[in-house]
Amino acid sequence: MKKLALFVEGQTELIFCEYLIQVLFGELNYAIQTQRASGRKKARQITTITAKENGNNGADYYFLIRDCGNDRSVISDLRDDSNSLFVQGYELALGIRDLFPDFSVDDLERFEKGLQQTLENCSIPITPIIAVVETETWFLFEYKHFKKLDPKLTPTQIRSERGIDVKKDNFEVDECSASKLASIYSLAGIDYDKSEKVVLRIMNSMSAENLANYVSKRSSSFNSLYMTLKGFIA
């Protein structure tokens, strides 16, 4: 069994990573466990949220997705738990967090180098994936989901009402992507409160084809996540 751990900064990232795994591994035998971490650094409490299995012949792939509670805990939790993950048989771990608001786009290269130095002596290989500028940036690039979410959310209407061209604009800039996303959703009366219900509704509207063929070309950070997961298939 191949085992991969994904440590993420919040519920939105957890749900999105679970969605990507289901898209890429849907025809295979796999299991996913989701967890939530809480408490201070030296007294972290881990709570299991869900445990799911796909297929009838036992899992060939096992994924652990842990919500670390905030962006700054992702890398430190991975570093602290790397030996435990190694003992449990994980061969790779991903640390997924936003660049914004702690760092700017100009800080990205320096930030990534610092993370690599922090993680170089861990017990298993750890790949930090920094969403530029936020996970919601990836949602903005996946423009096809807007109309599926609500027929009123056409590219033309969004451009007219909000001045955002979802097909052409570069969203990897030093602006809050979550605020832009919320502004677009509000045209359809959708409150982007990041609740489980709302994020699941967004995932149900996502185009897996557009993520693979378009978003992966517009966003190198999304492409890193997508290709790492895809490359995990034996």
Give keywords:
single chain, 234 residues, alpha/beta, Rossmann fold, 2 domains, six-stranded mixed sheet, 6 strands, 45% helix, globular
What does this protein structure show overall?
- This protein is of the alpha/beta class.
- It has two domains: 2-132 and 219-231, Rossmann fold (3-Layer(aba) Sandwich), CATH 3.40.50; 137-208.
- The protein is 45% helix and 20% strand.
- A six-stranded mixed sheet has the order 3-2-4-1-5-6, sandwiched between helices.
- Helix 1 runs parallel beside helix 8, helix 4 packs across helix 7 (177-186) and helix 9 packs across helix 10.
- It starts with a strand and ends with a helix.
The second-level CATH architecture of the largest domain is 3-Layer(aba) Sandwich
Which value, in Å, is the CA radius of gyration? 18 Å
Number of H/I helices = 10
CATH class of the largest domain, named Alpha Beta
Main sheet strand line-up: 3-2-4-1-5-6
Q: Strand content of the residues, in percent?
A: 15-25%
Please indicate the count of domains.
2
Order of helices and strands: EHEEEHEHEHHHHHHH
Largest sheet: 6 strands, mixed
Draw up the topology in text.
Blueprint: E1 2-8, H1 11-25, E2 30-38, E3 45-54, E4 61-67, H2 71-87, E5 92-98, H3 108-119, E6 126-131, H4 135-141, H5 144-149, H6 155-162, H7 177-186, H8 196-203, H9 208-218, H10 220-231
Parallel strand pairs: 1-4, 1-5, 2-4, 5-6
Antiparallel strand pairs: 2-3
Helix pairs in contact: 1-8, 4-7, 9-10
